[in-house]
Amino acid sequence: MQPVSILLNVLWILIGGAWMAFGWLVAAVIMAVTIIGLPWARAAFNIAVYTLLPFGSRAVRRDEVTGYSDIGTGPLGVIGNLI
């Protein structure tokens, strides 16, 4: 990690990033307890980690990491778009 990224991450945590990451972590735990929110609990945990240290991170396509194509949200995306 670059020194500038480290400095920006420390400033981010001090200014409010820790509270935001804590909020996403609480949301992930609440989602994990409920049956309906269980599929999204891991995503909320990943957002908490990304929110804690955003500088120096980058989003990549899933197929670049795993070598498999992304199936998307499947039927949940269709249902969500209908509501």
How is the topology of this model organized?
Elements: H1 3-33, H2 38-52, H3 62-66, H4 75-82
Helix pairs in contact: 1-2
Brief summary of the model shown:
This protein has 83 residues and is mainly α. The protein has helices at 3-33, 38-52, 62-66, 75-82. The chain has a domain at 1-57.
The number of strands is: 0
Distance between the termini: 42 Å
Q: What is the arithmetic mean of pLDDT?
A: 85
Instruction: Give the count of helical stretches.
Output: 4
Describe the structure.
The chain has 83 residues and is mainly α. It has a domain at 1-57. It is 71% helix and 0% strand. The protein is flat, with a radius of gyration of 16 Å. The model has no long low-confidence stretch (mean pLDDT 85).
Structural features:
single chain, 0% strand, mainly alpha, 71% helix, 83 residues
